[in-house]
Amino acid sequence: MSLRLRFALACSGVSLLLGALAVAGVYLLVRQNLEYRTDLLTPDSITVLGGRYFPRHDDYYEVARANAMRVRTVYQRDTLAAVRTTGALVVLAAAALAFPVGWRAAAWVLRPLRAVTATAREVAQSHDLTARMDYRGPRDELLELTGIFDTMLGRLARSFDGQRRFVANASHELRTPLTINRTLVDVAVRRPDATEDVKRLGESLLVVNARHERLIDGLLALAEGEQAVLDRRPFDLTDVAEHVLDQAAAEAAEREVTIHRLLDSAPTSGETVLVERLVQNLVENAIRHNHPEGEVWVTTRRRADWVELVVANTGLPVPPYEIETIFEPFRRLHGDRLRSDRGSGLGLSIVRVITDAHGGAVVARPRDEGGLTVTVELPADQSAP
C-alpha cells in the first residue's frame, strides 16, 4: 500500500476507534443513570397510578411498584438499544468520512515529498549527478532530508568526476609515449640496414605497443561511457550494426569466421558514437573468441518499448558461473591473459557501462554448442513508427 493510502486508512481507523470508545462511554453513562433506585419507588412517592389516587396501602404500593419496574425495564432496554444503534451508525459514518478526509490531507502533506521524489527520479534516470533537490520549504524533516541528499550527490559527483579525470589524464599521458614508441620502432624496422633480428624484435614490440594502445582506448571509452547521456538523438540500431559489420568483414574473413546478419528495423535514441563502440566490442569479441570456420549471428529487432541487439557466436564452452564475471574489467574467459590479439579485457565492461548510460540492460548466456549469446536491450524511440 502507498503511504497516502496507509495515512487515509489510519485516519479512518483512529476515527473508528475513538468513536467506538465515545459510544461505549455514553452507553455506560446512560445505563448507569437508568439503573434501579429504591428511593424513587417508596409509598410516599407513589400517589397516582392510572390517573386515580390510591390510598397508601401496601397492596396498592406493590402493584404500583411492579408496574413502575416494568416500565423502567422497557424504557432502559429501548434507550440502550437506541444508544447502541445510533452510536454505531454515527461511528461508521464518521469512519467512512474520515477516509476521504485523510486521503485529501495526505495529498496535501505529501505534496512536497512527491516533488522531491520526481527530482530524485530524474537524477537517477539521467545519471546527472550535478542536479540537486533544491527544496525550499519550512525547516522540517523533509528539508533536512533533501539537504543530506544534496550533500551526498555533491560528494558522489566530485568522486566520479575525479575518477574520470584521473583515467582520462592517465590515458592521455600514456598514449603520447606509446605513440612515440610506435613511431620510433616503425622507423627502426624500416631502415635499410636493419637486420632480421631487429625486424623481428620490432614487430614484437609493435604488437605489444598496439595492445597497450587498445588498453588505453578501452580505459577512455570506459570513462566516457560512465558519463550521463544527456544529448539523445534518434537513430536506427540496424544502421549502426551494418556499419560495424562492414568494418569487421575483413577480420572475419582472415579468421575464417562466417557472419550471419538478421537485421530488422530497431529505432532508438542516444549517443551514436558510444552505441557504435558497444556493437563493435560485441562483434569483435564474437569473432576473436571463436574458432576457425566458426559462425557469428547478429540480430537487431524491436519488441514493444525496447529494441534488441543479439550477438551469438560459436567457440569454446563457457561455464555458467563465469557469465557475470566476464563483465568485470580485465576479466577474460579461460584465463587467457597473454593473447594480445583478443583484446584488453575491457570489451564487455564497456558494453555494460554504455548500456547502463542509455537506460538499457545487457544479458549474456552460454550456448549449448559452445560460445556465447549476448543480448542488449535499449529503450525504443517512441516517435518512430
TrEMBL record:
It comes from the Bacteria. It holds the Pfam family HAMP. GO terms for cellular component: plasma membrane. It is an enzyme of class 2 (transferase). Residues 169-382 form the Histidine kinase domain. Gene3D superfamilies: 1.10.287.130, 6.10.340.10, Histidine kinase-like ATPase, C-terminal domain. This is histidine kinase. The lineage of its organism: Bacteria, Bacillati, Actinomycetota, Actinomycetes, Streptosporangiales.
